[in-house]
Write a structure and sequence with these properties.
The structure is a single chain. By secondary structure, the protein is an alpha+beta fold. It has helices at about 5-35, 195-205, 230-235, and strands at about 40-45, 60-65, 115-120, 140-145, 160-170, 190-195, 210-215, 230, 260-270, 270-280. The protein has 3 helices and 10 strands, in the order H-E-E-E-E-E-E-H-E-E-H-E-E. The radius of gyration is 46 Å and the shape is elongated.
């Protein structure tokens, strides 16, 4: 065989081997990049209700591929003894945002956001839709009564919207959200309000009658109703408004002057006659 041909074949073999090695390295790096590492996270071993305190029997672990979500708990000891601020479901990874702060315990207090207050409002069985209020719903607070200094007026009691779009923390002793929407009679409703709103609500609870009005949780618009009085309910809104009375001092009417009478003597030869007529009269 020609020596030149042998050199060419050997060179081609070397080039093919180098290309194959480069392709192998590139494909291997691509495959390695697609293989995610796994990590063990803490999950709920059973369904855990809002307000419950986590125990070791409520927790389990599971392998999760890829990067862990922000706030995921990897050590069960970091979750034991903390209150649940949102329902947990079996197999769900436990996040820091779903648990109360360490040492805050469970129950209603653990669900109160920082800077907010839970204000209890006493209701009766006939206060509007109070029997249908459950945790997580949104309500408006209406107050009715006689404003100070208007006890002797003819307007009667007045009603006003005091607070709007307020979240319900609990109804009675139940802080769970009612998924079926079943009504139940409650005597106390806890509302999530700011400290300023808590002062207004506390004063209104002692001096006025409170009614809760349900609203759509997706409706966040704040209305500006003017309020109304008892007299407005009985007024005829279709009748024409009364004509305003003049407020100025009436002008004095000048008395009509008396008519002046003129007498004219007429001589016709030896005859004499008199003609009488008033001023302004025309005589033909």
């Amino acid at each position: 065989m020609n020596k030149r041909v042998v050199v060419i074949l050997f060179s081609a073999f070397l080039v093919a081997a180098a290309c194959s090695y480069l392709v192998y390295r590139m494909v291997g790096a691509r495959l390695g990049a697609t293989q995610h590492t796994t990590a063990r996270v803490v999950v709920a071993a059973t369904d855990v209700k809002l307000g419950s305190v986590l125990r070791d029997v409520d927790l389990g672990t599971a392998e999760m591929a890829g990067p862990l979500p922000k706030g995921a708990i990897t050590n069960p000891q970091d979750a034991i003894g903390r209150g649940v601020v949102s329902n947990l479901y079996q197999g769900e990874p436990i996040m820091e945002s779903r648990l109360a702060a360490v040492g805050s315990g469970g129950g209603l207090a653990a669900t109160i956001s920082p800077g907010m207050r839970a204000c209890a409002v006493k209701v009766d069985d006939v206060v509007g839709v109070a029997g249908f209020v459950t945790a997580g719903m949104r309500v408006d607070v209406l107050i009715s009564g006689n404003p100070p200094g208007t006890a002797n007026t003819t307007q009667g009691p007045r009603v006003k919207t005091l607070l709007q779009n307020i979240e319900v923390l609990s109804a009675g002793t139940d802080i769970q959200k009612d998924g079926e929407g079943k009504p139940k009679q409650v005597q106390v409703v806890n509302l999530l309000v700011t400290p300023e709103q808590a002062e207004d609500l506390s004063l209104a609870s002692n001096e006025t009658h409170i009614q809760l009005v349900l609203r759509n949780p997706l409706d966040t618009q704040i209305a500006e109703p003017p309020g109304t009085a008892m007299a407005n309910l009985f007024s005829d809104k279709n009748s024409a408004p009364p004509k305003p009375r003049p407020t100025g001092t009436p002008r004095a009417v000048d008395p009509k002057p008396a008519s002046r009478v003129y007498v004219v003597e007429v001589f016709n030869g030896s005859k004499k006659s008199e003609e009488k007529f008033t001023a302004g009269e025309e005589k033909q």
